[in-house]
Specification:
Structural class: alpha+beta
Strand order of the largest sheet: 3-22-5-17-18
Shape: elongated
Mean pLDDT: 83
Helix content: 25-40%
Number of helices: 7
Number of strands: 26
Low-confidence stretches: 278-289, 297-306
Length: 505
Amino acid sequence: MSRINQNISSMVAQRTLGSQNMSLNKSLQRLSTGLRINRGADDPAGLIASENLRSEKAAINAAINNAERAEQVVNVAEGGLQEVSNLLIELQSLVSSTANEAGVSSEEKAANQLQIDSILQTIDRIANATAFQGEKLLNGNFDYSTENINSSELTDVTINAAKLADDGTAMSVDVTVVDAATTGAIAIQTSGGVFNAGDSNGDGSGTQFASYTIEITGTKGSQQFTFADETAASDIESAVNSFADQLGVTASLSGAYIRVDAQEFGSESFVRVKELNDGTTDDSNPSAGFIGEAIDGPGSFAGTEDTGSIWGSDATVLINGTQATTNGLTARVSSAGFDVSITIGSSANTDGGNSSFSITGGGANFNLAPTVDLAGKVSLGIETVTTGNLGSGSSGFLSDLKSGGISNVQNGDLSKAQSVIDDAIKQVSSLRGRLGAFQKNTVGSTISSLGIALENTAAAESQIRDTDFAAETAALTRGQILQQAAIQSLALANSSPQAVLSLLG
């Protein structure tokens, strides 16, 4: 049967050709873009997954850029600190050379003072000029601000790092002294306010010594003292204290004994007293010895034979409930997002003593994680290195070395000047060390880990979204063949009605 009004064969061929054209166009698009999914219709679930992975890749790339930016900030700060360190070493040399009073004229001292003034001005200029993208780095701009610090309870507070909430809520820091720090302390027994030299037998029956010699050693040095029999305890006290700076100890009268204390607190400080004479010097109580541990109560005394070495102890401190690492009166807690060092004052250095303060703001904050939250924030404190802040409250500050200052080299205290410079060098070195540790351990490790995460995320996205060129090329070839076949079929179908005309002939 032949009909010409409805060419069904042609319709089928047209539909097949259209389908093959669509398949061929899809293969061409995939091959030209390199993507298997170009629109939602290609793979709805795959599109959702791949878009999420693309978002993660963008966040990881941003975090890597932030970390690299943080590294550049540290590099700029380190450059300024290195120059400050060099200037401090030069200062140290100038102060030391000026201390040679017999060989330095007043004109040379004045010239050295001019150099010192110039160096101090340069340090201040570096502190105020070192910047990154317009942000000052060494003028205290990135130091932390604190409130309610009781200077008698906490003599020094250094905030190295603190993650503060974005809403501006202050962080409270509570310090509890579980066990107070102590100094090494030794007692030297006396009798009626005088010191008995003892006798050759050590029991009062031998030849009386005309004098006695003891050796006192502290953390800074050692010195021998020889006293006549019946020397007043107060004179012994004065003699020992005259060498206090050289020995690192101080002497005081306490009841029936002379108490010798280390000047510093902690397990590294000690006092040793050794009897260099033969025999026992304490006639009144020869069995106890004359040197022993000094107990707090007057007359409290634990005697030894002829020598004793007593060490102090470090404080046991909790900072926000965490056991701190201590050295004498200094305590530090270092953890993720919280790094605080404090020095305990006299009023808080008691068993059960406590103090508290608040961190209200500041710090250099970097977001080194793909997510923007407190966990991904890294905070770093950068203290100011101006001459008015380098040094300590006990020895003074660098600004004291300028002309007219109490530690100038022309007529000031050179010993104190040396101590100030030593403290300043330690401060700058400590800051450089912290910045270096941050750059190496925090920034460097973050860049490495984020790089690995980026690779893995990109691989996952590629698996879902990218075109398999081998498979798609095969599909393209297949589509081309089927397209040609459909065109031929359509041509045959369209020619079929022409055959009907032969019936009219």
